[in-house]
Amino acid sequence: MDAKAPKFQIGDTVVVKVYGTVGKITAVRQLEGGYFYVVNGREGLLSEQSLARLEEYDGILYKKEEVNIELKFFIGDIVKVKGYGGVLFKIAGFRTEIWRYAEDAWEDVIYEMVSIPKGEWLEADEDELLLIADAGQADSFVSRYQFFYPMKSSPLYQLVTSDLKTQEKIDRLLDMYNDYALLLNLFGDEAYRAMLEAVKMQIRVLAAHGGPD
Question: Which residue among 20, 79, 94, 157 is buried most deeply as judged by most CB within 10 Å?
C-alpha cells in the first residue's frame, strides 16, 4: 500500500495558524510516518495540523514585516550630547521605537546613557549624539579625560589648584609620572599610557604658564 501523500507541496502558499502569517512551503520532510514542512526557509519543522491552505483559512491574517535598523552607536561608546556642553556620557543601552501610519513609517533608536563621572541618567536619539570614543577605547579615554579635566574631588585637581609653588607641583607630577610608567611596564595596560600622556600635558602647561610662586 502506498504511503499517504503529503498534504502540501513545495511552493504551496499556506498560513501558519498560531501566528496568522502567510508563507510558502520550501521543504517537505517525512518523519515517523508523518509529514513536516519548512516555511519560507526558516529553521524548524511545522506539522500538517499547524498549517492551512490560504484559500481555506478563515482566521485573522497578520502581515509580517522584517525591519532592519542600523545602529550608529553601541553599548560602552563614549559620546557627547547636544545641549550638554563638554559633559561626556557612556552608552548603557538602547531601544527601538517603530512607528507605522497609513501614509508614513519610520524607526527611532533611543540611547540610554550615564554621565561621566556623576552617573546621571539621560536618554537621547542618535541625531543628538557625537561619538568621542568607541567601546574598545572607552576605558583609556576616560582615564585620560579625567586627567585633562580633573574633577574637584580628584588628587590631580587638588594638586593643580593648590597653593603649592609651580616647581613643587611639577615635582609631584613627575613622581606621579614615574608611578604610572612603572605600572605600564608591569602590566602593559594602555590606560596607563594614556595617563602618562595626560600627566605630561599637565607638566607642559605648568612649565609654560607657571603659577603663583
Answer: 79
Q: What is the DSSP string of 89-117?
A: EEEEEEEEEEEE-SS-EEEEEEEEEEEET
Nearest to 18 by CA among 72, 54, 60: 60
Q: Is the distance from CB of 74 to CB of 91 less than 8 angstroms? A: yes
- Cell numbers given for 53: 491552505
* Residue 88 · residue 115 · CB < 8 Å: yes
Rg of the chain in Å (alpha carbons): 31
Angle at 64 between CA 60 and CA 66, to 5 degrees: 170
Closest CA relative to residue 90, chosen from 79, 102, 103, 99: 79
Q: Where are the beta strands (DSSP E) in 101-188?
A: 105-116, 121-125, 129-133
| Domain 1-64 coded CATH 2.30.30.390 | yes
List the chain domain ranges. Answer: 1-64, 78-133, 137-209
Report how far apart, in Å, the C-alpha atoms of 209 and of each of 40, 102, 213 are: 71, 64, 12
Distance CA 67, CA 63 (A): 13
The cell numbers describing 50, all together, are 499547524
